[in-house]
């Protein structure tokens, strides 16, 4: 599902809201998640999952074409861990 498909589906399910307002809401939520991650914060959406950032250390890599060693700088990457309810939904665990 793309962002525009999400906006269209939410607008469909909430006919009392204008599509431009739904678009603004979705964009604001994504922007706030991105801003929190940029500050190094963790964002948890109960039942869905948690977004966080992980630090990758600098290392020595190899150029696959030449085999020459290259220096790879450290970086911060986004990480998502699914919540229990989402994992159960995906795996069909209906035992609760």
UniProtKB/TrEMBL annotation:
InterPro entries noted in UniProt: Hist_DNA-bd (IPR000119), Histone-like_DNA-bd_CS (IPR020816), IHF-like_DNA-bd_dom_sf (IPR010992), IHF_beta (IPR005685)
Q: Which residues form the signal peptide?
A: none
One GO term in the molecular function aspect is: structural constituent of chromatin
Cite a single GO BP annotation. regulation of translation
Q: Does the keyword Transcription regulation apply?
A: yes
Query: Can you quote a single GO CC term?
Result: chromosome
Could you name the domain of life of the organism this protein comes from?
Bacteria
Keyword field? DNA recombination, DNA-binding, Transcription, Transcription regulation, Translation regulation
In terms of SUPFAM superfamilies, this protein maps to:
IHF-like DNA-binding proteins
Looking up PROSITE patterns in the UniProt record yields: HISTONE_LIKE (PS00045)
Question: What NCBIfam families does this protein's entry cite?
Answer: hip, PRK00199.1
Per UniProt, subunit arrangement is:
Heterodimer of an alpha and a beta chain.
Family note = Belongs to the bacterial histone-like protein family.
Entry function: This protein is one of the two subunits of integration host factor, a specific DNA-binding protein that functions in genetic recombination as well as in transcriptional and translational control.
In Swiss-Prot or TrEMBL terms, this protein is called Integration host factor subunit beta
Species in which this protein is naturally found: Magnetospirillum aberrantis SpK
